[in-house]
Amino acid sequence: MTIKPSTALRNEYLQIAYLAKQTGEPIFITNKGEADGVYMSIEAYEEREKMLTHRASILAAEAARLAGGPTYTAEEVEERMEALFHAAES
């Protein structure tokens, strides 16, 4: 975990941006010794958003399953996918 004071963000932006891109990790920014914000590269942000969206879809599917929604075996999914592929080729 990297922690930088807010003055570093203002005075050393290029170095902080480079560090964020190289590590892929967020950099915590403090103001007067207190946590104030987080800086991260756009690539890390987009990856994080994809992960959160994926987790939300898994959670929704699990909630639907627990509520009695339909479930499918791996074989049923494969058959459906094959049917879709064949329909798309036609």
Sketch the major β-sheet: 3 strands, mixed
The low-pLDDT segments are: none
Task: Evaluate the radius of gyration.
Answer: 22 Å
The chain-level structural class is: alpha+beta
Strand content: 15-25%
Can you give the helix content as a percent range?
55-70%
Which helices and strands occur, and which strands form pairs?
Blueprint (H helix, E strand, L loop, with lengths): L1 E4 H6 L1 H11 L3 E5 L2 E6 L2 H25 L7 H16 L1
Parallel strand pairs: 1-2
Antiparallel strand pairs: 2-3
What does this structure look like?
It is built from four helices and three strands; from the N terminus they run E-H-H-E-E-H-H. It is an alpha+beta fold. The longest helix has 25 residues, at 42-66. The chain is elongated and about 60 Å long. The model has no long low-confidence stretch (mean pLDDT 94).
Keyword list:
alpha+beta, 17% strand, 3 strands, three-stranded mixed β-sheet, elongated, 90 residues, single chain
Brief write-up:
With 90 residues, the chain is of the alpha+beta class. The chain has 4 helices and 3 strands; from the N terminus they run E-H-H-E-E-H-H. The mean pLDDT is 94.
